[in-house]
Amino acid sequence: MEPLLASVDRYETGQRLKRFVFDRSSRDEAQLVSEMTAGSHMLSWLNLLDQDEFRAEVVSLIDRMFRSRIPEGWTDWGFKEIRYGLDNNSPEILMSFFPGATGIFTFRDPRCTIESMVRTWSPKLMREPPNIDKLSNLYRSYTIRWKKVMKYFLDSEALLSQRLLFVSADKFDWPNEEILGALGLTPTRAIPDGLGMTNQGPRELPDWINGRFDELFAAEEPVCLELFARACTRSDADFAGYSPKSGPAPDAGPGAA
């Protein structure tokens, strides 16, 4: 869906469309037909396009696509996408498309995440003879990816405001109802217990890979842990006033310690 999202900005800001179509939108139908039949020094365009219509059509298309396959009895839709925020502005575009939507950014410890990337996205590495250089290059590339995504969401906080909620992995130990309550959501049906991380890759890794993770992470540890700490601070703020078991904390009143 990323190309579709990016096309809206190109459509709305493209200088050629602005010059040949949108800046001439005051023309009437008779003038359009005349230019097509008699010729014109300008680009003939047999359509009174409106600059705002494309955005509305894309929003309608996305909503229809997801809503058409919602399981029976459900009314709202959402999706998970781990590539948004990496060399693209898709989260902010989607949030601008759907003003009533809530964005949820889930994250966990950087070392665990990067190791999971190695496990899940480099299966050939597990089957090949030991190759330290290849492992090092993959690890660095996944570390760069993790940092870019973290920075994107941390730096987008001002733009996305309170509609983007940070959920650190420790919150997954909370009962589902508590998590939804902290997010301002109300479940309409039973939710399976045990929400957690998915796609963690194979449990067992060759010893030559396991033995290198400490060394590889050490080079990036300060920067990664600083980003992780910032995200955790934001997550704790988003869940402020809630506890894993009690739900909303009672208001202690003015002057409470």
Shape: extended
**Largest sheet data:** 2 strands, parallel
Overall average pLDDT: 80
Question: How many structural domains in the coordinates?
Answer: 2
Low-confidence stretches: 246-257
The tally of helices reads 13
The CA-CA distance between the termini, in Å, is 49 Å
List the helices and strands and how they pair.
Layout (H helix, E strand, L loop, with lengths): L1 H12 L1 H6 L8 H10 L14 H15 L22 H8 L5 E5 L2 H12 L1 H5 L4 H24 L1 H4 L3 E5 L7 H7 L24 H4 L2 H6 L2 H18 L3 E2 L3 E2 L9
Parallel strand pairs: 1-2
Antiparallel strand pairs: 3-4
Helix pairs in contact: 6-8, 8-13
Task: Put the structure in a nutshell.
This protein has 13 helices and four strands.
